[in-house]
């Protein structure tokens, strides 16, 4: 295993029996969930699709898990697929901006507007499945951010100047929840 996975580039990935059993359990949960099964295994999607284009003179790409003329569907694993916890997970892990990016770039490639859907499956028993749509308002908000980021990125590319995060000491930013917790 070590010789194969540590070679450059890795020749193949080898999984333990425990990892294989977990992957099989996740797959079984997805197949047992009627709606997830329909989307993942019965629908007609192009899978693992790579799209390449240029935006604002910057070469870009997307790699969709599943795409058709109406939807982009991403399969995500998570520790908690409940609506509240998975929504926070999406925010913290950049899934909202990913959704906006994929929608924006796929439209640039073929002119089609698509909804972005996520099928979330838990990585521990009972392997619950959550089905989510990223609302259009969130997609638009994130696309506005993307455009601002790309303007700044293009300026950095052209000037070859990359601003530093901090030039001097400053107070650290703390989430509001920190101040709401009780001290024992």
What is this structure, in a nutshell?
The protein has 184 residues and is α+β, with helices and mostly antiparallel strands. The protein contains seven helices and five strands, in the order αααβββααββαα.
Notable characteristics:
184 residues, alpha+beta, 5-stranded mixed sheet, 5 strands, 23% strand
Describe it:
- There is one protein chain.
- The chain is of the alpha+beta class and 184 residues long.
- Helix content is 46%, strand content 23%.
- It has seven helices and five strands, in the order αααβββααββαα.
- It has helices at 2-5, 17-32, 34-42, 83-92, 95-110, 136-159, 176-180, and strands at 46-55, 58-67, 71-78, 115-122, 129-134.
- The protein has a five-stranded mixed sheet with strand order 1-2-3-4-5, with helices on both faces.
- Helix 5 packs across helix 6 (136-159).
- The longest helix is centred in the last third of the chain and has 24 residues, at 136-159.
- The radius of gyration is 20 Å and the shape is globular.
- The termini are far apart.
- The mean pLDDT is 89.
Alpha carbon gyration radius? 20 Å
Largest sheet features: 5 strands, mixed
Structural class: alpha+beta
| Major beta sheet, strand line-up | 1-2-3-4-5
Order of helices and strands: HHHEEEHHEEHH
Q: Could you give the distance between the termini?
A: 48 Å
How many β strands by DSSP? 5
Beta-strand percentage? 15-25%
Shape: globular
Helix share bin = 40-55%
Contiguous low-pLDDT stretches (5 residues minimum) are none
What is the mean pLDDT? Answer: 89
In DSSP terms (H or I, runs of 4 or more residues), the helix count works out at 7
